[in-house]
Fold:
Amino acid sequence: MHSPAVARRAPEITSRLPGAIDRFAGRLTNRLIRATPWQVMQVQTRTPIVSFTFDDVPDSALRVGAAILEARGVRGTFYISGGLAGRVEPDRTLIDAAGCRELAARGHEIGCHTFGHQDIRHVDRPAFVADLARNARYLDTIDRRPGRRNFAYPYNSGCLGKLQILAHSYRTCRAGGEAINRGPTDPSFLKAVEIRQPETHVAGLTRWIDAVVEKPGWLIFFTHDIAPTPTPYGSTPAAFERLVAHAVERGCCVLTVDAALDRMGLRGSTR
Structure:
């Protein structure tokens, strides 16, 4: 199921470059990670699988997003940064520990999104390890579990020098990439499709569901808020509900990340 990983080290980027250069460096890093997978698992399924995931987790993702999924009898994966708990921002409020507990109690999966929600390229290794441990303690007070959690990269930004840490700590790590997971897949850099503004973009995302129905694989969506006036990184309730309904009505198996791995008999990254 997995091929052995060869240890690799890459220089750490611990200070920020000018914005445009840093964004270019981030895109280049992600391409290098995709070109040189840390590990490989085989994503093979005859049934199309779709996972809906949320990053940061604004309170609207709990109040509205989770309810839309539950109305269809399915659940999602919510990637939590403990350092954002309860934060009030101009266009959103992040859920607190009580909100996380509610999600877990309602059957949704709680994943890790780091504690400090920083681009991990800009955090040195000791600080990064400490940050992950701090978020693990936070999440364990909410939803203690015996096995490893799943992880999502803040800003979908990978780091070659930290892949070994992540592969040993988490079952999978989700990035972006705008693609469906099929065949040989790196569990430490899963591909995902973003649900974001404008609404015409969200409406067009049904094509991804049609594509995974035509050629089965594992389609992972990610978004943030689900609100009448969403941020640029979210969706309206109506558009999100249409997307979930389309997946269910087309016969997709809508599962959390953890449940999708279990259904396919995949362990994810290995220690």
Remarks:
- Residues 179 and 191 are 6 Å apart (CA to CA).
